[in-house]
Specification:
Largest sheet: 5 strands, antiparallel
Number of strands: 5
Radius of gyration: 30 Å
Helix content: 40-55%
Length: 142
């Protein structure tokens, strides 16, 4: 039994079209996966930068408390809210912390013959469509 050439005409076109459609779907899926992976990595990077900015600011705040020992007032205050002193400074020129800023809030709480300092450090990194923020809290008793 022989199949004539007329019966085979167009079958390769259908197979080629099917292969092109399947390959296009695979390419679109791969592109979407790679795009979401890139966004996820960018989120992680900015989140880590915000955390380390906040941690650096907290170290600076604790250093200031240990040097001054009696008050948060020696922080170069920009504003004062409910007895808390806020310190905000620009770290965006530091390597690895580009587009980041930090704020430290300090509140002194007198306790018996000593002082308790409550610090909140906030690191914020702006990556355009991604904005990451981390808060770190600490208490220092002197």
């Amino acid at each position: 039994m022989q199949i004539s050439i007329k019966q085979q005409q167009g079958s390769m076109l259908v197979i080629a079209l099917f292969i092109i459609v399947v390959m296009s779907l695979l390419a679109a899926t791969l592109s979407r996966v790679l795009s979401s992976t890139a966004d996820s990595v960018a989120d992680e990077v900015y989140s880590a930068k915000a955390y380390y900015a906040a941690e650096s600011a907290m170290d600076y705040g604790i250093y200031q408390i240990l040097i001054n020992k009696q008050s948060c007032a020696d922080f170069p205050a920009l504003t004062s809210i409910s007895g808390a002193t806020n310190l905000q400074f620009d770290i965006s020129n530091e390597v690895g912390l580009e587009n980041c800023s930090v704020t430290i809030k300090c509140q002194r709480i007198p306790v018996n013959n000593s002082s308790l300092f409550y610090l909140i450090s906030t690191g914020t990194c702006d990556g355009g469509k991604i904005i990451a923020e981390h808060n770190i809290e600490a208490e220092v008793k002197i």
